[in-house]
């Protein structure tokens, strides 16, 4: 029996250096709950771009509410768009797994950055600031990975101690 909210394919490591996340992402199933959630995410995203944080909350709430209405044309439209968004996410995930697009993009970005650093016409202060930002982002990512692994371990421990 799997603890609630814990993926059976999730592996834990309590070492000081977290393991990089695996590229195996389970496709999102297109069902009523997921399409309603996706409607809220899409509404929040559009609202954020159009009107900021308040627009994000209003857009998420409106589209989520509209997706839950029965026998309404707006519900059918919102749920259709949400299903398409889920299918696009699944397709993009499969493409990334097949061609390793994110890894290739990261390698190309690093090559471009090294080329810029080697260019004599680039201000050294700008390069220094870029390196500082890059290191900060790397450290924050490692910190988040550690925090996530500890949170999952605590959830599994709690689920093991208190069976449902």
Quick rundown:
This protein is mainly α. The chain folds into two domains: 29-99, no CATH class; 100-164. The chain contains four helices and no strands.
Structure notes:
- With 164 residues, the protein is mainly alpha-helical.
- The protein has 2 domains: 71 residues, no CATH class; 65 residues.
- Helices cover 73% and strands 0% of the residues.
- The longest helix is centred in the last third of the chain and has 38 residues.
- The N terminus is likely disordered.
N-to-C order of helices and strands: HHHH
Overall number of domains: 2
Class from secondary-structure proportions: mainly alpha
Molecular shape: extended
Low-confidence stretches: 1-21
Residue-averaged pLDDT: 80
Record field, number of beta strands: 0
Radius of gyration: 21 Å
Helical fraction equals over 70%
Q: Largest sheet, if any?
A: none
The total of helices stands at 4
Note the beta-strand portion.
Answer: under 5%
Tell me the span between the first and last alpha carbons: 10 Å
């Amino acid at each position: 029996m799997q603890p609630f909210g814990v993926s059976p394919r999730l592996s834990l490591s309590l070492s000081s250096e977290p393991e990089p996340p695996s590229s195996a992402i389970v496709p999102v199933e297109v069902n009523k709950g997921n399409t309603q959630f996706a409607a809220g995410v899409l509404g929040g995203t559009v609202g954020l771009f159009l009107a900021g944080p308040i627009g994000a909350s209003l857009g998420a709430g409106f589209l989520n509410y509209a997706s839950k209405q029965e026998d309404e044309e707006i519900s059918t439209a919102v749920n259709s768009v949400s299903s398409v968004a889920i299918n696009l996410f699944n397709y993009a995930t499969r493409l990334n797994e097949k061609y390793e697009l994110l890894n290739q993009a990261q390698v190309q970005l690093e090559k471009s950055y090294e080329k810029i650093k080697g260019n004599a016409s680039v201000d050294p202060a700008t390069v220094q600031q870029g390196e500082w930002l890059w290191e900060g982002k790397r450290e924050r990512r490692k910190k988040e990975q550690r925090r996530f692994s500890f949170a999952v371990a605590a959830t599994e421990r709690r689920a093991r101690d208190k069976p449902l």
